[in-house]
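Listing 4. Sequential folding, example run.
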Amino acid sequence: MKTREQIYNGEGTELLRLITTYHVLRYEQVIRFFSRSKEDSIKSLITSLTKQGRIYHDKERELLSDTQESAVSPDYGMIAAFWVLLDFKEALVYHTSGDFPIKLHFFSNDESYEVIYAGLNQEPLLNHVMESIPCQDASRLVILESESQASKLSIDGVVAFCIVDRNGAVSYYQKK
């Protein structure tokens, strides 16, 4: 008889790591993170882990979280940053969450990236905080809510700005 671990090939561990690292993600993001061939298996695993109380699924808002409290006030900046991470999925080596103002860090092939979320009117705060955080050879991707924010930001190491729409589509443009 196969164990649950053998059936899911370590996907349960990876799914739990994903949700506990980022706390709240959209259901669709979690499904997209795993390969298409595993989609049914992941959906079944999510249902099982939800029933066990190990993760929470807010079906109304389509969120998966590590606690019910996390789902109450999700970090939409982190959710946007995870959409950016998914764009690099095929070449992804390692990823983890970051500390304000860096939402997440990841390695893709031989490149190191930091994803920063710039909420509206946070530009002065981000400029001030980022002055004290040296770039350290990471390429920085900055998520904006509006293209007009780009001219108000002076952050070292930015290789591109991007905007994430409600459906998770990411549009990139170069720093001017």
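-- end of first protein; second protein begins --
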Amino acid sequence: MTLPPPRDVARWLWTWRQIILLGILTCGAYGLVLYGFGIIAGPIQQDEGWSSAAVNAAFMGSYLLGAAASLVSGRVLDALGPRPVLWTGLIVGTIFLMAASYSENIWLFIVFWTIGGAVTIAGLFYNVTMPIAARLFPRRQTAAMTVLVTTGGFSSVIFMPLTGLFTDEFGWRWAVRILLVVAAAISLPAVLSVRRLPPIPPPEPSESPGVGPRRDQHGFSGVGDALRSREVQVMLAMVIASSFGLGALLNHFVPASTAAGMSITAAGALTGLRGFLSIPGRALIGPMSSLLGLRPALGVGYGVMLLGTLALLAAGPIFWIYLSAIIAGLVWGQTMPLQGLIASDVFGLRRLGTLMALQTAMGNVALAIGPFAAGVLLGLVDDNYRPVLVAIAGVNALTLALLILMARIHRKPLAQLAASLIAGRRAPQKREYDPG
């Protein structure tokens, strides 16, 4: 295998520099708010004597409030561009999360972490960086999304070990402060680099009309128009179902594995492997999309996720648990970017920030509720994980069915367009004079 010449590497890095910087920013944003919190939650309970429910209330509150705040940041992104959104997410999010690290009272901790996490989620997560990437490279969105999410995929690989190391060495409070400084430092280049978005380019001649009421080639004229589109309705339902099942599976993987006979150390190691495998999974987005198309590629991901859940359900031999973790890792990194690409295709560029924020908000609420609902079901069945996994598999199957329905809705207008064009060509020409 021959390496590309340095000049080609330098040209590639220069072409994608803004997308790479946005991916690094995403690493920092997700690093503490999502991945790091799972590491520090236990030490917080031990050091402060706070209950698990109270500590995790801060995490759930940040996601629920972040879902609502994302609707605001999406509209601001479409109206004013990326600078106010990125700067607010970086500065306000850092200040409130830093304040949480100094809070001695549990209620102040919940309030500060909820606000800081919500602002970070609304201003720096994929619901913002994906629309920015799509606007920066409107003709090469698949490549841009692949670079973005592959770079951002290193977040768990980097920040989970760092969070554990700093927490062991300095305690959870100083760990949070150090990680906030690190996250701000690696996010700042993107905030300084991405100042404005280019104008929406004119549609290509081959571009087909969109689906839905009053939608032109650039997208829907507003949220109301989009929500009246059947394709959009089915897509939002699909994202909700996908997030619900994914959240339940990811948060209950370790206890389900230990219930099947695996040690907690091995189950924890598999969780790390799953996060690492999401990186090559994201790198496959471009080839899979080119080979299969966006919707079939996402369908493969949903189908494989269903198989991974069934593998965990079949766990007797430990082999099935390893297989489930490998499948979940490879597919986990693909579903969100592919959903973002399909959203860009369905929504268009005009209101992409607002509509993708709406989609992300719904997905985040489902992601927060999924683990809780699985826990409630687990309590109702006397801590037997088999009914829980059956329910998650059912949600996976529903997600796949909704994708198939959305694809059929998407193809129908194109078929109608082709039929009308063919009929137009075959229609007889009107005669100027008819002697009869």
